[in-house]
Protein 1
Amino acid sequence: MRLRARCLVILERIPIRWNRNEYFVGSSIEANIDVHAVNIVVFQHLDVEHLGVLRDFMREDGISLTAVELDRGDAIPDLDGFDAMIVMGGPQDVWEEDRYEWLRLEKKAIAHFVQHLKRPYLGICLGHQLLADALGGEVRLSEQPEVGVMNVMKTASGAADTLFGSLADPIRALQWHGAEVVTPPDGAEVLAYSPACAIQAFRYGEFAYGLQFHVEATRDTVSDWAAIPAYTRALERALGEGAVGRLESEVLDCLPIFNATARQVYNGFKSKFRAATA
């Protein structure tokens, strides 16, 4: 058991490690925090697919973030020192191990963290698919790719879930994917679906969650992702020429809803890693 204590402190400078640099945020912020600092490792597959607004929430809480940019050759660190793992999206597919050799190591690390260390995991888009694949599920190309702002519905299990239950139904969400989980790992609970994708979210065990849809959007998300040629091609195939501008406008209109959903997901995930380290 990890010893924890609570105290009221003044945070003068909170170190946040991000993309191999250390940043300091906060200035004379009064907050209730744990004396035991929470350390989260974040696997990234493209520099513009980062934690987004979730990063802001974690900075507010003084959480230490270590980003591992796998596509740039960053080595996976010893995972024993981390309280939770978050795996983000990217242009890769889970079956492209010959092209991206680090995918094999990443899947082993995910399985070890979830099944052996039994610590909280949150996967978004590719991170959702990697969780399924690493634990014995199946991922395939989608018959109908989902790109744009769409609705996601909760299953009965989702409505009863301690993290998912507080979310709206339907969930208004940003989608941008051409592959999907078609078979969840044995024992997983499917939490959400859409007309085009039967497994929009699932939970494995008590602490591991995969979300096919994006909750991390900021006002820069569409423009940042549209700078990636493969993403722009997928967007225009789905929504037609000029789709970038239209989607950017729609995301900005929906951003308060997206950010509220992100806050709820983060609060639910935070309760998981607090429970796991209590």
Protein 2
Amino acid sequence: MAHNLLKGKKGVIFGALDEHSIAWKVAERCHEEGAQLVLTNAPVAMRFGKINELAEKLNAQVIPADATELADLEKLFQESMKAMGGKIDFVLHSIGMSLNMRKGKTYTELNYEHMLKTMDISAISFHKMMQTLWNLDAMADHGSILALTYIAAQRVFPDYSEMADAKALLESFARSFGYHFGMRNKVRVNTVSQSPTMTTAGSGVKGFKEFFQYADKMSPLGNASGEACAEYCVTLFSDLTRSVTMQNLFHDGGFSNMGMNPAVLDLPRE
């Protein structure tokens, strides 16, 4: 059910690879709530993704951009403002990739050149995105910037490897830039720490299926779905959350506050 929460708002969404992507689901819900959108992804990701299919469905423009390249980001935001006829109300960063994990490197044998690339793609790209928006004065007053993260930034999940460090850095960028954007023109910057979700990227993590099932049992409400995450993101883009900023917001069915759930051990509840 739509409530026109984003009617008249203009947004840029990074990372909609295919229908399994959270960014894809966020774009769909934003469109349903009345937003005008620009979709973007790295050119290499666009070649094997379905972003053009989504753009046609949502009547959105696609502007390719490598989020690690400042020139690409500047062009993206300038063209987005031109295409949508004004400043940007909201932005979603949904980008992450570990070169070491792709190459099967464990945390104790990381290739540091690969690690630097992981940090650039998965975290520093968020700072570059915000700094470009800042320099262009591209964000509308009371706008909202979001990035997707994961609880491995605070807890140890061995198979998540260097991506845990990248997410910790990402969350720090949100707090630090959140101060500056808030002081300038009341723009909010937050991160959403989502449950394990069956995305194309997530499914590639070693042992993901087993951990997905564990987290679902551990969480009183079960794992939050990608669709539910999209709905939560809509509220954070809307005017209903104008006083929420510099927060890491857990959207995980209660997992983040659990110690042990008897359901994990198949024990009866009292």
Protein 3
Amino acid sequence: MLSKKYIFRLIPIDYKAMKKLLFLFVSFILASCVFTEEVTFNSDQSGQLSIGFDGSEFMKMMGGMNADQEEKTVKKVDSLVVFSDILEASKDSIARLPLKEQEELMKLKPYSLRIQMDESADLMKFEMLTDFEQIEDVSDAFKTFSKSSVFGDQRTKGAPIITNDGVEIKYSFKGNRFERQARIKDAALFNKALDSLKDAAMILSASTYKMKYNFPVKVKSVSYEGASLSSDLKSVSIEVNFQDLTTNPERYNFTVILEQ
């Protein structure tokens, strides 16, 4: 179950609407310029993963474009989409899909998507959420979404694939040692994915990737030189350029050692 702080109006949504919503979610990374990954651990190393996009700048830009409109209906949304409910309601339709597509869709089952929109405040935020028993279970979480068949063919719709099949990202939390490791497992696939992102290079180079890891005890050391610690020494924050993270994923591997 998600934490009690995530209780909102649930959106009545069907399978087709889910496809459009997820495609929109992935596409906003190119407009938002801010991508966040946050992990909060409990004392038993279970916890919650949050992957978010802040599209407030996009909302502000769109508001400026519509400023000359005399009448404008202000929209406010604060809702939670629970994918397990959608998959259950659409199980008959999903059963008719090819087996590979069914398997991809079922990977979405543990996740929920929070949507916040308020045109009057130039607010637009999307946040994927899931609980986990062990962090290894949610490695490459964003790839689960962006590579899922629910998006259809992103390239034909104008949104480049922003994950890289040539890269493998793994988390590990053993004892008092936490690691985030990216590895280029297939150079050919890695370079092919980079080629597909050339048209978006200018936008990605101006984008930021923020990582935050919250632990139940104090941090003793962090191997990444640019990391910062919270005042209580229990949180590690790392902020990097998204373009550089995409082209040099192994550069941002790091290890966190906790106090025992």
Protein 4
Amino acid sequence: MYAKSCIPTGLLCLKKVRFLSIYIATTARMRAVSANVSSSVNIMNIENFCRISNDKVSFSRQQSSNFAKQIADDFNPLHDVNAKRFCVPGDLLFAVALSKSGLHQKMTFTFSGMVSNDIELNFPASIDDKFIIKDDNGKEYLDICVAGSKTDNKTLINSLVDAYVGFSGHTFPHLLGQLMAKNKVMINPSRPMIMYQSMSLELDCLDINDITLTLSQTSLTMNGKRGSACLEFDLLASGKVIGHGKKHMLLSGLREYCPQTMNELSERYNAFKENYVA
């Protein structure tokens, strides 16, 4: 999990409803995640969003916030420059890992810690089987497992990152909101908890340059007040499915769904985002 009590990239643990309202919404420029997801933003230069020195990578608050808002369209308040409990977006770690270590046919990313600003992490130039992203004190943040062939094709890597981040940044409330409504449950609005646990992907081939993403199905398995959400997606090249992936999240404090509460929170978030865009 990417943190225990706060939300880094999808993890939401805020004490007050006014904070949750910042995170929940239908965004002003929401891409249709049920259709092909492909952003118009080119993130070829990953160094716009981090500082790289050999195998050391760190992130300023401004870089992380810019990535969240401008690339992922993610307005999680923990990614705000002035956030008290600031954390680097998990999808930014995913993007840096691919940029630094390359893309393998099979990859699994499991989050285990929250990254704050200016912490230097050790990212490898290549991964043979498994690598754990740590800081100089040995604290673990991200476990990466790989298999199959590898490519360093920057065009393909940027296309994949762009497609996935555009999808992942809209996980909540767009996809999880619908999933919770379907299952007639919702997170506790006063102590919400959604944890971005992991993501995995598998590609049939790597001899391509452009990838789009299509949501295939969603599911929510409940066990009392806890739930496990899975968002599955297809990866396409020239309209043909050439891979698949999954994003897993853990939900806590589940209770009976209340449409009015969710709508009110969404409206407040819309106002927050509109002010930022303006």
